[in-house]
Design goal:
This is ActR/PrrA/RegA family redox response regulator transcription factor. Keywords: DNA-binding, Phosphoprotein, Transcription, Transcription regulation, Two-component regulatory system. It comes from Nitratireductor aquimarinus. By secondary structure, the chain is of the alpha/beta class. It folds into two domains: about 10-130, Rossmann fold, CATH 3.40.50; about 145-185, Arc Repressor Mutant, subunit A. About 45% of the residues lie in helices and about 15% in strands. A five-stranded parallel β-sheet has the order 2-1-3-6-7, sandwiched between helices. The chain has a two-stranded antiparallel sheet with strand order 4-5.
């Protein structure tokens, strides 16, 4: 086992293993739900802020994984609702649009960790079960700077509904430069 995972997962999970996963990316949501069920969680899912808040109010989960940006609002509203209903809940924020201000806000609202997408099930499980004060081990194979840049460009491109001109404008980049980047394969 790696040093960033808990030796006894049952001790980290406790008796209540309810987990709410909130993400508007249906394939990712389905994969993560299956992966977390195989790790001992009782999983509920939601694809919107409205649905997640309703679930959290009805049955506050012991654990939650919440995407920061959802189609109908901000995942921080879900974190706040969970924290209001259940002070001991362990919530992890996932985001493709990370910045320091939202990370600080997420932690102030009660999130125990803030992970950048793409995060895998092992990273999420480790964040949910990590004991307070336990240090996070550095990643074995961190993404290269080129890959991080490419991922960011792809997210903005998707956010702009795959409109090259709008994406180039938002990234303050020449349209042709962006077209060349989009035509290439993803760096490793």
């Amino acid at each position: 086992m790696t040093s960033d995972t808990v030796e006894d997962p049952d001790a980290a999970l406790g008796e209540d293993r309810s987990l709410l996963i909130v993400d508007d990316d249906k394939p990712f949501l389905t994969r993560l739900a299956r992966a977390m069920e195989s790790r001992g969680f009782t999983v509920e899912t939601a694809e919107s802020v409205e649905e997640a808040v309703a679930r959290a109010r009805a049955t506050p989960p012991a654990f939650a994984v919440v995407d920061m940006r959802l189609a109908d609002g901000n995942g921080l509203d879900v974190v706040a609702t969970i924290r209001e209903k259940r002070k001991d809940a362990r919530t992890v924020i996932l985001t493709g649009y990370g910045n320091i201000a939202t990370a600080v806000t997420a932690v102030k609202l009660g999130a125990v960790d803030y992970l950048a997408k793409p995060a895998d099930a092992d990273d999420i499980y480790a964040a949910l079960t990590r004991q307070s004060g336990e240090k996070v081990a550095p990643p074995e194979n961190p993404m290269s700077a080129d890959r991080v840049r490419w991922e960011h460009i792809q997210r903005v491109y998707e956010m702009c509904d795959r409109n090259v001109s709008e994406t180039a404008r938002r990234l303050n980049m020449h349209r042709r430069t962006l077209q060349r980047i989009l035509a290439k394969r993803a760096p490793r």
